[in-house]
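sry for the spam today, last one i promise. struct tokens for design, 96 residues
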């Protein structure tokens, strides 16, 4: 092994150890994750993208919920009335 390769291995090992420490996981678990990422890069990228899309969708839903609550705020019981009507409508739907 050349000196350059040895230094690269040392830096990689330190990086894995630092990552494990930061995430508060065992070094072996961080090593396994790095090996999996290296072997299945496209799959991991796809998984990360799907998680990003889901998180964005959830944030947008939360924003819309906040808009409903803000619009309802002037009338103290508006949210209660809206939720009551919505849940009553759902209860009228036959369940299988």
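last one done:
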């Amino acid at each position: 092994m050349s000196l350059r390769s040895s230094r690269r291995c040392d830096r990689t090992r330190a990086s894995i150890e630092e990552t494990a420490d930061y995430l508060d996981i065992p070094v072996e678990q961080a090593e396994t994750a790095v090996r999996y990422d290296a072997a299945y890069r496209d799959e991991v990228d796809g998984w990360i993208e799907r998680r990003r899309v889901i998180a964005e969708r959830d944030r947008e839903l939360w924003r819309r919920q906040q808009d409903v609550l803000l619009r309802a705020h002037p009338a103290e019981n508006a949210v209660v009335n809206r939720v009551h009507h919505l849940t009553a409508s759902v209860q009228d739907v036959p369940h299988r």
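DSSP finds four helices and no strands in the chain. ok im logging off now
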